[in-house]
C-alpha cells in the first residue's frame, strides 16, 4: 500500500507536469499547416504550355538502363570535395513491370533496401544511394529546356518520399559538377500515386548528354516504415517551354515585385518592375474593385540598373489591395498593423514539424530514441529539440539560437500586449527547445554540442543504426546555454515558477563552467570573431558572453555579470573601423575579426552579424550610466550607417550587401578555392586600394544569403531602436520583403507563404509550410541574383537558421508601436497625415502605426518617432514634457557647435554624450516658461579630422528620448 501511494505521489509530482507540458506542446502545435499547392510555382510549372517535345524513353525495354548502389557515406566539408565512394556494391535491382503503368504496356521498376548491411557511418550519414541510370550517346539537348518524368513511389509506412535527379554531360562543361549543385535536383514525391515531375534545365550544360539518373538516399527505416522500397518510372520526355527567370537584377518581365504578405500600416510601401509600358499605377481595393490611389510611376537608377518604382506609402488604411500598372497586376496583399503575424505562424509551424523525439502528424512518429551522447560512463538520449536543415541533424548552437529567439518573441509580445493566442503558441515552442537545452547537460560543464544525422533509426539502443556522439566542455556552448536559461527564467517566472527556478539554477552553473574554460580560448589580447567560411565554433564569442552576462544580471542583479559584460565589449568596439581609410569610397563602421584589424570580418551562408549589435545595444540599455556607454552607442551608430550607405548600391530593393573584401584574401583560402575566391572578390564594386564591396557573399562551398541578410537586418534593427532611427528599422524590414517576393523573380521564397513559392530541398522531412531556404545565390563568380528552378543544397535547402533569424527579427519589428504613459490632460498624437488620436485618461495606452508624431498635451508639444514593434513609456505631465530640436554647425579651426532649442515648463537639464568629440561643458540647466523657446549651446572639438563623431543630446537624463547628431 505504501509503495502504491508513493508511486501515485511520484506520478502526480514529477510525471504529471511533464505530461501536461507535452500535452500543451502537442495541442498548441496541432496538425501541420496544409499547403495551398495551387499557389505554388510547382503548380504553375505543371500547367505551362509545352512548345515542343521529344520522347526519350517510354520504359518498354531495359536496353539503355542500369541500376547502381553506392556506399561509404557522404563526406561534406567546406574545404574539401564531397566524395561518394563506390565499393561496387550492387543492391538495387531493375525490371519491367505491369503493376503500375502510366502509359504504354510497361513501366521501369527499381527495388532497393532502405539501408545496407553493417553499421552506418560514424558521421551520422546514411549508407549510400541506390538508383537507376539511363545511358545516352553524347546527345545534344540544347534545343530543349525541360525534362518531364513520371514516378510512382511505393514506400510502405513512409511519411516522406524523396528522390534526386542528375544529368551527366561530357561537353565543354562537365556534369556532375563539383559538389553537385548544378545539373541536379531533389524531389519530394507523393507516396503511392503517380507524380508528374518537370525540371527546367535551361541553366544546365547539356550539349553532350551521356546519362540521366534517379537515385534514393539509403537512410534506413523508422518504426512502421518498410525496409524494402520500390519506385516505378515511366515516360521520360524532353520539352521546350517558356523558361522562368533565374538570373539578374531586373524584375521578371510582366511581373511586379512586391511584399506578398503586405506592408505594416505606417511603413514605407513600394513595389518594383522593369520595362512597364504604363505611365501610372493604381492601388485597387481587392474587396470591391475601387481604385483608392493613382500615381505616376517613378524611375530609380542605382549600381544594379534602372527600374520602375511604385511608391504608395501614403496608403495607411488597413485592407486588402492589388497593384495594377497597365495590364500587369499583383495578387492581393494586406496593409495591416500585424501583417507579419501569418508568416510568424508559418515559421512556428515549420519548427513544430521539425520537432525531434515526438510524433508530428504526417511527418514522422516518435523518433531517434537511440540517438545518444556519451561522457565517460554516462549517457543521455538526446532526441528532442528540432531537426535542422534538409537532413535530421541536431546542433546545440542552432537549438540555443532558436530557443532564445522564441523566448525573445514571447517576451516582446507580452510587453506590447500582443495576441494572446500567438503568445501561447510561441511560448510552447520555446519551452520545447528549453527542455532539450536542460536535458543535454551532464552537469559538469560537458554537454552535447550537436551532431550530423541523416538516418531514420529504429529507436532500439545497441544495434548498428544508432548514432552516438561524445560530450564536450565547450565555453561557447555553455555561454549560449546560460543565455537561453536566463531569458527563460525571465519569461517563465510568472508562468511556471518551478521551471523558471530550475532554468536559473542551470544558467548559473553553465556560466561558471564557461568562465572556467574561457582562458583556454583567450590566447592573445584579441578574441577571434568569425571568418570567411563560418566554420569556427567560437564565432562572435565576446558577444555571446555579453548576452549571457546581461541576461544573468537582469535575473539576479549580481554585479559580477556586469563586470564581465563590460570587459568583453572592448573586443567588439576595438575591432571596428572608425578611421576613414584612404579609399575612393572611405567607408567606416564595418568590422574586422579581431582588435588587430588584420582581417576583414566575413560570413558566408550563415552569418552572426546580429550578435555584436545585440550585445552592444543590450549593454546600453542595461548600464546607461557607465563611462563606456557612448563608445557602445557610437559603435552601433557607425555600423548601422555603414549598412544604410552600402544598401544604396542595391536600390530600389534596399537589399543589404554582404561586406567588404580585400583583393589579397584569396591567398588565405584553400588552394582549390583560390581562383574562384579571387574572381568573386574582383567582381564586387571597387572601393579603392584593392577593396571591393560584394553585394552577395564570396562563397566557398555553401551558397545562399538569407543567413547573412537576416542577421544584418537584426543588427540594423537593434541599432535602429537604440538610436530611434526609423530609416534603419525600415531597411531591416526590406529584407523581409525581399524574401517574400520583392525580389527580381517576384516569388515568395518561404514555402507555403505568398504565391509562386518553389519546392525546397528537404529530403528528410518533406515540404513544410514556413520553411525558409538558405537563400538566393549567385552563379559561379558573378555578383547578381541566381535562382535556378532546380532544388538543391544549400541555397534551396531548408535550414533552421533563416527561420530563426526571421522570428528573431520580427520579435523586434513586427506589429504596431505600443505607447503608454501619464498625462495631466488630453493627449493628441498627430501624424504626418494629420490623423489625430485622443486619449482622455490620466494613464493612457495606445497602439500606433510606425512613424513621426507630434505629441501634444496641455498646450505643450514634443516630436517623437515610434518604431514598429516598439514599446514606449511617455511622461506627458506638464512639468516633465520637453521638446528639443538639435542642429550642429562647424566653426573655424574644426570646432563644432551643437545648438539645442527647447520648449517646456519648469527646470530641465540638457546633457551631451559624445564619442569622437570633446566638450568642456556637457550639461546645461534651463528654466522654461510656457511656450517660450530657449536655446542652449555646446561647443566641442573633434578628436581627429579622420574619424566621424557621434553626439547624443539627452533631456533630463532620459537617453531614450535623446536626439542624435553625427559628423563625418
What would your notes on this structure say?
It holds the Pfam family CelD_N. The chain starts with a helix and ends with a strand. By secondary structure, it is α+β, with helices and mostly antiparallel strands. It folds into six domains: 29 residues; 192 residues, Galactose-binding lectin (Jelly Rolls); 74 residues, Immunoglobulins (Immunoglobulin-like, Sandwich), CATH 2.60.40.10; 291 residues, Glycosyltransferase; 62 residues, Carboxypeptidase-like, regulatory domain (Immunoglobulin-like, Sandwich); 90 residues, Immunoglobulins (Immunoglobulin-like, Sandwich), CATH 2.60.40. It is 25% helix and 28% strand. Strands 1, 5, 6, 8, 12 and 14 form a six-stranded antiparallel sheet that branches. Strands 2, 7, 9, 10, 11 and 13 form a six-stranded antiparallel sheet that branches. Strands 15, 17, 18, 21, 22 and 23 form a six-stranded mixed sheet that branches. The protein contains 15 helices and 46 strands.
What fraction of the residues are assigned to beta strands by DSSP?
25-35%
Number of strands: 46
The CATH class of the largest domain: Mainly Alpha
Q: Write down the Rg.
A: 29 Å
Number of helices: 15
Q: Rough shape?
A: globular
Number of spatially distinct domains: 6
Mean pLDDT: 91
GO biological process, one term: polysaccharide catabolic process
Pfam family, one: CelD_N
Keywords: Carbohydrate metabolism, Glycosidase, Hydrolase, Polysaccharide degradation, Signal
InterPro entries: 6-hairpin_glycosidase_sf (IPR008928), 6hp_glycosidase-like_sf (IPR012341), Cellulase_Ig-like (IPR004197), Glyco_hydro_9 (IPR001701), Ig-like_fold (IPR013783), Ig_E-set (IPR014756)
Amino acid at each position: 500500500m505504501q509503495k502504491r501511494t508513493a508511486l501515485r505521489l511520484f506520478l502526480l509530482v514529477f510525471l504529471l507536469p511533464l505530461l501536461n507540458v507535452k500535452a500543451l506542446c502537442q495541442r498548441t502545435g496541432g496538425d501541420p499547416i496544409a499547403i495551398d499547392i495551387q499557389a505554388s510555382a510547382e503548380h504553375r510549372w505543371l500547367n505551362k504550355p509545352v512548345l515542343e517535345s521529344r520522347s526519350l524513353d517510354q520504359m518498354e525495354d531495359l536496353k539503355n538502363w542500369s541500376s547502381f548502389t553506392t556506399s561509404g557515406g557522404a563526406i561534406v566539408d567546406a574545404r574539401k570535395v564531397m566524395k561518394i565512394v563506390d565499393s561496387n556494391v550492387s543492391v538495387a535491382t531493375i525490371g519491367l513491370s505491369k503493376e503500375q503503368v502510366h502509359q504504354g504496356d510497361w513501366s521501369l521498376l527499381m527495388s532497393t533496401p532502405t539501408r545496407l548491411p553493417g553499421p552506418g557511418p560514424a558521421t551520422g550519414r546514411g549508407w549510400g544511394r541506390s538508383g537507376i541510370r539511363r545511358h545516352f550517346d553524347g546527345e545534344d539537348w540544347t534545343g530543349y529546356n525541360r525534362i518531364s518524368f513520371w514516378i510512382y513511389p511505393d514506400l510502405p509506412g513512409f511519411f516522406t518520399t524523396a528522390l534526386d535527379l542528375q544529368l551527366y554531360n561530357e561537353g565543354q562543361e562537365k556534369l556532375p559538377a563539383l559538389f553537385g549543385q548544378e545539373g541536379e535536383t531533389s524531389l519530394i514525391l507523393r507516396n503511392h500515386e503517380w507524380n508528374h515531375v518537370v525540371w527546367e534545365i535551361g541553366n544546365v550544360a547539356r550539349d553532350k548528354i551521356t546519362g540521366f539518373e534517379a537515385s534514393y538516399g539509403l537512410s534506413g527505416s523508422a518504426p512502421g516504415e518498410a525496409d524494402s522500397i520500390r519506385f516505378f518510372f515511366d515516360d521520360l520526355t524532353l520539352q521546350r517551354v517558356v523558361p522562368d527567370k533565374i538570373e539578374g537584377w531586373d524584375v521578371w518581365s510582366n511581373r511586379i515585385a512586391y511584399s506578398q504578405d503586405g506592408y505594416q500600416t505606417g511603413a514605407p510601401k513600394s513595389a518594383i518592375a522593369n520595362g512597364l509600358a504604363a505611365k501610372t499605377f493604381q492601388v485597387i481595393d481587392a474587396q470591391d474593385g475601387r481604385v483608392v490611389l493613382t500615381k505616376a510611376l517613378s524611375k530609380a537608377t542605382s549600381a544594379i540598373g534602372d527600374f520602375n518604382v511604385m511608391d504608395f506609402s501614403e496608403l495607411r488604411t488597413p485592407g486588402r489591395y492589388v497593384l495594377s500598372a497597365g495590364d500587369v497586376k499583383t495578387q492581393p496583399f494586406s496593409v495591416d498593423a500585424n501583417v507579419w503575424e501569418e508568416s510568424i505562424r508559418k515559421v512556428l509551424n515549420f519548427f513544430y514539424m521539425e520537432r525531434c523525439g515526438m510524433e508530428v502528424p504526417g511527418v514522422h512518429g516518435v523518433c531517434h530514441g537511440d540517438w545518444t551522447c556519451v561522457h565517460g560512463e554516462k549517457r543521455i538520449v538526446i532526441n528532442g529539440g528540432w531537426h535542422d536543415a534538409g537532413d535530421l541533424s541536431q546542433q546545440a548552437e542552432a537549438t540555443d539560437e532558436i530557443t532564445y529567439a522564441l523566448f525573445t518573441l514571447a517576451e516582446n509580445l507580452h510587453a506590447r500586449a500582443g495576441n494572446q493566442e500567438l503568445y501561447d503558441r510561441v511560448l510552447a515552442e520555446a519551452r520545447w527547445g528549453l527542455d532539450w537545452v536542460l536535458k543535454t547537460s551532464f552537469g559538469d560543464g560537458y554537454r552535447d554540442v550537436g551532431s550530423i544525422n541523416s538516418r531514420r533509426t529504429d529507436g532500439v539502443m545497441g544495434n548498428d543504426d544508432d548514432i552516438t556522439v561524445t560530450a564536450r566542455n565547450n565555453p561557447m556552448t555553455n555561454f549560449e546555454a546560460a543565455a537561453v536559461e536566463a531569458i527563460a527564467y525571465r519569461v517563465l517566472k510568472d508562468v511556471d515558477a518551478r521551471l523558471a527556478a530550475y532554468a536559473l539554477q542551470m544558467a548559473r552553473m553553465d556560466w561558471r563552467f564557461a568562465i572556467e574554460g574561457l582562458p583556454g580560448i583567450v590566447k592573445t589580447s584579441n578574441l577571434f570573431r568569425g571568418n570567411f567560411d563560418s566554420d569556427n565554433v567560437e564565432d562572435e564569442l565576446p558577444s555571446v558572453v555579453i548576452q549571457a552576462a546581461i541576461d544573468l544580471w537582469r535575473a539576479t542583479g549580481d554585479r559580477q555579470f556586469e563586470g564581465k559584460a563590460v570587459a568583453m565589449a572592448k573586443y567588439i568596439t576595438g575591432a571596428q573601423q572608425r578611421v576613414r581609410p584612404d579609399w575612393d569610397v572611405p567607408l567606416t563602421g564595418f568590422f574586422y575579426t579581431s582588435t588587430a584589424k588584420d582581417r576583414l570580418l566575413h560570413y558566408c551562408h550563415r552569418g552572426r552579424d546580429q550578435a555584436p549589435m545585440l550585445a552592444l545595444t543590450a549593454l546600453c540599455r542595461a548600464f546607461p550610466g557607465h563611462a563606456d556607454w557612448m563608445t557602445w552607442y557610437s559603435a552601433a551608430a557607425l555600423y548601422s550607417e555603414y549598412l544604410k550607405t552600402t544598401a544604396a548600391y542595391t536600390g530600389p530593393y534596399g537589399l543589404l550587401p554582404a561586406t567588404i573584401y580585400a583583393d589579397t584574401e584569396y591567398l588565405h583560402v584553400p588552394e582549390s578555392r583560390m581562383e574562384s575566391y579571387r574572381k568573386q572578390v574582383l567582381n564586387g564594386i571597387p572601393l579603392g586600394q584593392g577593396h571591393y564591396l560584394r553585394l552577395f557573399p564570396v562563397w566557398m562551398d555553401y551558397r545562399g544569403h538569407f543567413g547573412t541578410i537576416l542577421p544584418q537586418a537584426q543588427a540594423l534593427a537593434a541599432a535602429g531602436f537604440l538610436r530611434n532611427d526609423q530609416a534603419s528599422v525600415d531597411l531591416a524590414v526590406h529584407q523581409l520583403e525581399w524574401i517574400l517576393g520583392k525580389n527580381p523573380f517576384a516569388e515568395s521564397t518561404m514555402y507555403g507563404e505568398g504565391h509562386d513559392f518553389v519546392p525546397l530541398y528537404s529530403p528528410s522531412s518533406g515540404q513544410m509550410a514556413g520553411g525558409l531556404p538558405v537563400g538566393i545565390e549567385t552563379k559561379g563568380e558573378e555578383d547578381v541574383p541566381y535562382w535556378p528552378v532546380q532544388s538543391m543544397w544549400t541555397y534551396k535547402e531548408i535550414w533552421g537558421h533563416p527561420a530563426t533569424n526571421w522570428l528573431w527579427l520580427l520579435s523586434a519589428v513586427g506589429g504596431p508601436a505600443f505607447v503608454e504613459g501619464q498625462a495631466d490632460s488630453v493627449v493628441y498624437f498627430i501624424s504626418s497625415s494629420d490623423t489625430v488620436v485622443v486619449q482622455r485618461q490620466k494613464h493612457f495606452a495606445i497602439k500606433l502605426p510606425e512613424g513621426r508624431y507630434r505629441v501634444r498635451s496641455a498646450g505643450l508639444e514634443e516630436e517623437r518617432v515610434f518604431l514598429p514593434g516598439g514599446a514606449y513609456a511617455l511622461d506627458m505631465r506638464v512639468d516633465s514634457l520637453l521638446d528639443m530640436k538639435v542642429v550642429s554647425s562647424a566653426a573655424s579651426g574644426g570646432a563644432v557647435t551643437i545648438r539645442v532649442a527647447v520648449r517646456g515648463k519648469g527646470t530641465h537639464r540638457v546633457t551631451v554624450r559624445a564619442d569622437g568629440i570633446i566638450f568642456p561643458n556637457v550639461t546645461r540647466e534651463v528654466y522654461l516658461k510656457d511656450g517660450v523657446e530657449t536655446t542652449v549651446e555646446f561647443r566641442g572639438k573633434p578628436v581627429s579630422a579622420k574619424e566621424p563623431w557621434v553626439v547624443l543630446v539627452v533631456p533630463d537624463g532620459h537617453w531614450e528620448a535623446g536626439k542624435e547628431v553625427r559628423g563625418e
